[in-house]
Write a structure and sequence with these properties.
Helix content is 40%, strand content 18%. It contains 11 helices and 9 strands. With 349 residues, the chain is α+β, with helices and mostly antiparallel strands. It is rod-shaped and about 135 Å long. The mean pLDDT is 92. Helix 1 (2-18) packs parallel to helix 4 and helix 5 packs across helix 10 (314-322). It has 2 domains: 2-81, no CATH class; 109-341, Bira Bifunctional Protein, Domain 2 (BirA Bifunctional Protein, domain 2). The strands form 2 sheets. It has a 7-stranded mixed β-sheet with strand order 1-4-5-9-8-7-6. A two-stranded antiparallel sheet has the order 2-3. The structure holds phenylalanine. Phenylalanine binds at residues 170, 172, 252, 255, 286-288, 309-311.
Length: 349
């Protein structure tokens, strides 16, 4: 029996020494000291021993139990300590490392351009208006002097929600909405930026969704020269004071007469180069004197009131101003493109 106890001691201690983790130690404890463990079963056989032998063997057994328990406890502590050290090592924090700068957003280039143009017109006494992108056939076309079946509707094919509801093809319906709101008796001076839609196949210069800024000035005695002066001011402040403008005759159903405005080419200053297709001029926007029908439909007496209106595309303006060659860059959310313009007016650094 003494030898048996000695073997148990040796075996158990060497296993404890080799144990790699707490789970192994627990298993060893169960194997040797547990209720069904080998030490326990040896002790159960003690009844067979003589009276003299019993206390001697009992003492040895207790010592063996003590030795194994101590060894397990020590090893447990050592393993726990090692685990803690490894964890600390792993989670070591170098407080001297530079921090990661948080990514700061900035306005989209189109937003910056629109805000720049808004500021300019607010300075000239204009109010900034908004209108719905889902528009009625009436405001998008009829109130703009394009009755059903009018051929000019073909140029502005769009996405229909129902026969009478559609995605607006231009910001011009906000002209009619604002004039109606003013009730026919007051002057109107407003611009309206917003998204517009057309059934176009997307390519470098076309997008089924783009932006426009509408301008409308209605009052007594508003003249074509007012339009020209306003647009000249706009062109010089957005593109540079050395730029010239010219107006060419054009056609829109909702203005009469209608014009197209060009600015002198920045590259060749009017001599002709590849940027301006050798004309010296670059087309920027459409405008004209508000058609009497449009005034009348919106409740204004066209004998008393006259007005001018214009519509421009911030996408095109941004493309010309910054030499951007593909309109799709504005809508495909490539941060490498967008962040280049965060320093533009109103943008974060
Ligand atoms: N709505 C016209 C377009 O989208 C632009 C325009 C607006 C022309 C106002 C004249 C007056 O092409």
């Amino acid at each position: 029996m003494k030898e048996q106890l000695e073997t148990i001691r040796r075996e158990a201690l060497s296993k404890v020494k080799e144990a790699h983790d707490l789970k192994e130690l627990q298993d060893i404890k169960v194997t040797y000291l547990g209720k069904k463990g080998s030490l326990t079963s040896v002790l159960r056989g003690m009844g067979k021993l003589s009276k003299e032998e019993r206390p001697v063997v009992g003492e040895i057994a207790n010592k063996v139990r003590e030795a194994i328990t101590n060894e397990i406890d020590e090893k447990t502590e050592a393993l726990e300590q090692a685990a803690l050290e490894a964890k600390l090592e792993n989670e070591a924090l170098d407080v001297t490392l530079p921090g990661r700068p948080p990514q700061v957003g900035g306005p989209h280039l189109l937003t910056s351009i629109i805000e720049e143009i808004e500021d300019l017109f607010i300075g000239m006494g204009y109010e900034v208006k908004e209108g719905p992108e889902v528009e009625t056939d009436y405001f998008n076309f009829e109130a703009m002097n394009m009755p059903k079946g009018h051929p000019a509707r073909d140029m502005q094919d769009t996405f229909y929600i129902t026969n009478e509801l559609l995605l607006r093809t231009h910001t011009s319906p906000v002209q009619a909405r604002t004039m109606q709101q003013y009730g026919g008796g007051q002057p109107v001076k407003m611009i309206c930026p917003g998204k517009v839609y057309r059934r176009d196949t997307d390519d470098a210069t076309h997008s089924h969704q783009f932006t426009q800024i509408e301008g409308l000035y209605v009052d007594k005695n508003v003249r074509m020269s007012d339009l020209k002066g306003t647009l000249d001011n706009f062109a010089k402040s957005i593109f540079g004071s050395d730029r010239e403008i010219r107006l060419r005759p054009s056609f829109f159903p909702f203005t009469e007469p209608s014009v197209e405005m060009d600015i002198s080419c920045k590259v060749c200053k009017g001599d002709g180069c590849s940027v301006c297709k050798h004309s010296g001029w670059i087309e920027i926007l459409g405008g004209g004197m508000v058609h009497p029908n449009v005034l009348e439909m919106a409740g204004y007496d066209s004998e008393k009131y006259t007005g001018f209106a214009f519509g421009m595309g911030p996408d095109r303006i941004a493309m010309l101003k910054y030499g951007i060659d593909d309109i799709r860059h504005f809508y495909t959310n490539d941060m490498r493109f967008l962040t280049q313009f965060h320093h533009e007016k109103g943008g974060a650094q």
